[in-house]
């Protein structure tokens, strides 16, 4: 349904995590605000978020977790090769604790705070997941007088004498267009992970990349901003979720909670490429974005298991603690069942053979037998002199039957393309703000990274979604 009014002080494009955080902030400031959401439901990928980053939050104070913000800033700038915006990252880090506190004041509960793998202890895990946060933000925004409509998308920003004058919107159900008047627009459309053309600008081998988003992050914010005169800024980074089962017949989220996926991607056993050769230390999966990058350096990638490792994972325990995965049990009790089921289904990503020679033949991995001999020798010596995998994860694969799982690369979000200033105002290519246009959340989060997403600072996009939504509203409030 079209909105009730034809004129607003602020229109927020996108009803996901950042848009709804901006909406509550705008409601708190008494700004006449409309949120338009192109989907039938609200929350976007915010519904799936595990946790948000914060420094010096109430919870960290309670737990005695202290982080030096300057050290953290230096660390992240180094990680980004100084491609991140230091002032913007600094402002975000310095306000991130109060962002967590603000969410808490709205009734959002946190189950824990700490690191994720080898990272800063910044991720505040939401009790009930992102969905619970969204469920708190929607009624609060409405209670504060914010109007929210769904199945309405933004089509074009209107400008007059260099200032925002309105927005063309479309009813997604009927296709009808309408013009609204507005003084300010916040773009909160979730980045571009679901736009294959834009992804191609950022990464090769698109057919092996699998989006785990809800499918609505199609880069609309960037396109609207570019059309209004914004700089085509660097395409930032893709948040790779490490390896993922390469299944071309089902959506990627189907495999996310499966133990076979975790065994193949998280257990650091043996990965080979299209030649059947190792190409990396498999414990690279300590950083899921590094793992994604490493997998992308090859044309095809397979995770190799044998019956002994499957039995061990099923009955004895894990070789390596599961890091960034929805499944983190002590054993993979369902692993053998899942393997049997997928083999019976004839799923193409899974191949079983009694001998290594047969597996190599079936998958055209000519060097697999010699790779395996070399790898088992290294395991016997207890040191990976080829790629430096930690000795604890050197697991021999001696006898058949063998299993090969073909791996693609999961993607949670893609950020970049728009440059903003410290108020989240969108900049033109001369570095000046486009008056009245702001970008927040994933649409602006390219400012925080270089070419690789910083899982060293876990929860950083969700924390940024909330921070930046509030930051843009604070700026709008000052200019009223
Ligand atoms: C499975 C998964 C898990 C994740 N876990 C984490 C995590 O634990 N921590 C973390 O920091 N990040 C995580 N992320 C990243 C996550 O994308 C962000 O943290 C967060 O959702 C970003 O908020 P956003 O508002 O920018 O985007 P979203 O929450 O996706 O919201 C964007 C909204 O804009 C709408 N929209 C798009 N185009 C238009 C248009 N033209 N008109 C109107 N509406 C439009 C979309 O439909 C969507 O509802 C995860 C992502 C996924 C997919």
Automatic annotation (TrEMBL):
The keyword NAD does not apply. The keyword Zinc does not apply. Its cofactor is FAD. Residues 10-447 form the FAD-dependent oxidoreductase 2 FAD-binding domain. It comes from the Bacteria. Keywords: FAD, Flavoprotein, Oxidoreductase. This is FAD-binding dehydrogenase.
